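Postdoc handover notes: sequence design on the structure in folder B. Input C-alpha cells:
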C-alpha cells in the first residue's frame, strides 16, 4: 500500500510516519513544503491512501490560510478525482472550523472539498476536527500551549497565563496516530471522526501539574504518571528535556554500615529505596505497627531474622541474588538483615508509605 502523508515533517505527521512503519507500512511518501506540485501530483497518482495533515495556522498574512488550507486541500481532492482510483482521503481540520475567523473559514472550506470529493467519487473520506493535540515533537511557542509550558517549565522560563481557569480539551498524539492508522483497514464509515480519550482540564491545571513534575526531582514524590492525562502529560514533559537533563542526583546517606538512598516516593503506593551493607553488617532491629516493606537482595547474601514482639516467636531465612526472592516485613514482628556474604550487599526496598519523621512507626527492638 502506497501511503501519502502531507505535512510529514510536522508534529502529527512525524509521529504518524513513525507509527505507520511500526505497523509494517514501509511504502510511505512524505510530502512537505519542499515538494513541488508536479511531484505531489505524481505521488497522488500512485497513492492508495492519503493523510492530508499539512496546513497553515501561523501565517504572516491571512491570505496564506486560503492558500495553505483551502486551496491545497482542493488541489488534492481534484487530483484524486482525476485519477479515479477511489483513494481514501483523511484531512486534519480543527475545532476552529466552527468559528467565523480566517483560519476557521479556510479549514471549513477544506472540509467541504474533502466531503465533496468523497460524495462525488464514492471514495472513503475522513475529517478530524482536532482540539488541542499535545505530545512529543511539537514545537514550543508555535501552536500548542502544552509544548510551550513544558519547554518553559523545564528551562526555568516564565509561563504566561491570562486565565488559569480557562477550559481546554486535549488529545494525546499517540491516541491521534492510533485513530488515524485504524482507518487503513477500511472498516470505518466516512464522515467526521474524533479521537478518544479526550482530556478536559484547565490551562492552570496543566501548568500546575508540570510544576509538580519538575519539583519531583527534588522531593522525589511522583504523581500518578501511569494513567490518563497525567501519564500523557508526563511523557510529553520528558520529551522536551535536553540530553543534559536526562539524569539527576538523589541524596545518599552513609555510615560505617554502608549507605542508604531514597529513589522514588508516591502519594498512594509508598516509596522505593535501596541500601548497601558491608560484609558482617546488620541493619534493622526494629518493628512497625502498620508499615510494611518488601526487600529484594540484588547483590550478595542475606540472613533475615524475625521475632514476634508479643509472643517471642523467632524465624530466620536466607536469600541471595542468585535466586531473586522478595522478603516481606510483617507488622508486630521485629526484623533485621545481615550481610553473610563476602562482598558488599545491595538491597532494594519498597515501603507501603512515605517515611514521616513526625510519625515514623518504627520502634527499636534488637534481635
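Designed sequence:
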Amino acid at each position: 500500500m502506497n501511503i501519502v502523508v502531507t505535512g510529514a515533517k510536522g508534529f502529527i505527521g512525524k509521529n504518524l510516519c513513525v507509527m505507520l512503519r511500526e505497523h509494517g507500512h514501509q511504502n510511505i511518501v512524505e510530502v512537505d513544503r519542499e515538494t513541488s506540485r508536479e511531484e505531489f501530483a505524481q505521488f497522488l497518482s500512485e497513492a492508495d491512501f492519503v493523510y492530508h495533515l499539512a496546513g497553515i495556522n501561523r501565517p504572516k498574512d491571512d491570505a496564506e490560510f486560503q492558500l495553505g488550507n483551502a486551496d491545497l486541500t482542493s488541489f488534492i481532492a481534484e487530483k484524486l478525482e482525476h485519477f479515479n482510483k477511489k483513494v481514501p482521503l483523511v484531512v486534519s481540520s480543527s475545532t476552529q472550523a466552527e468559528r467565523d475567523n480566517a483560519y476557521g473559514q479556510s479549514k471549513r472550506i477544506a472540509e467541504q472539498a474533502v466531503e465533496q470529493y468523497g460524495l462525488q467519487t464514492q471514495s472513503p473520506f475522513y475529517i478530524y476536527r482536532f482540539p488541542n493535540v499535545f505530545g512529543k515533537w511539537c514545537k514550543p511557542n508555535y501552536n500548542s500551549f502544552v509544548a510551550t509550558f513544558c519547554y518553559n517549565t523545564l528551562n526555568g522560563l516564565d509561563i504566561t497565563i491570562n486565565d488559569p481557569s480557562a477550559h481546554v480539551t486535549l488529545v494525546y498524539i499517540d491516541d491521534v496516530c492510533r485513530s488515524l492508522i485504524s482507518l487503513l483497514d477500511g472498516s470505518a464509515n466516512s464522515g467526521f471522526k474524533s479521537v478518544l480519550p479526550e482530556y478536559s482540564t484547565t490551562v492552570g491545571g496543566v501548568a500546575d501539574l508540570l510544576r509538580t513534575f519538575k519539583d519531583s526531582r527534588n522531593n522525589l514524590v511522583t504523581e500518578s504518571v501511569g494513567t490518563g492525562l497525567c501519564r500523557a502529560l508526563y511523557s510529553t514533559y520528558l520529551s522536551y528535556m535536553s540530553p543534559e537533563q536526562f539524569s539527576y542526583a538523589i541524596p545518599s546517606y552513609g555510615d560505617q554500615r554502608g549507605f542508604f538512598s531514597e529513589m522514588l516516593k508516591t502519594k498512594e503506593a509508598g516509596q522505593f529505596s535501596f541500601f548497601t551493607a558491608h560484609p558482617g553488617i546488620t541493619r534493622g532491629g526494629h518493628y512497625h505497627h502498620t508499615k510494611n516493606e518488601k526487600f529484594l537482595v540484588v547483590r550478595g547474601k542475606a540472613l533475615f531474622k524475625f521475632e514476634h514482639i508479643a509472643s517471642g516467636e523467632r524465624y530466620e531465612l536466607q536469600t541471595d541474588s542468585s535466586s531473586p526472592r522478595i522478603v516481606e516485613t510483617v507488622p508486630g514482628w521485629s526484623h533485621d538483615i545481615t550481610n553473610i556474604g563476602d562482598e558488599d550487599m545491595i538491597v532494594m526496598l519498597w515501603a507501603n508509605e512515605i517515611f514521616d519523621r513526625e510519625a515514623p512507626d518504627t520502634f527499636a527492638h534488637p534481635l
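Context for whoever picks this up: The two ends are 71 Å apart (CA to CA). Don't rerun without checking with the PI first.
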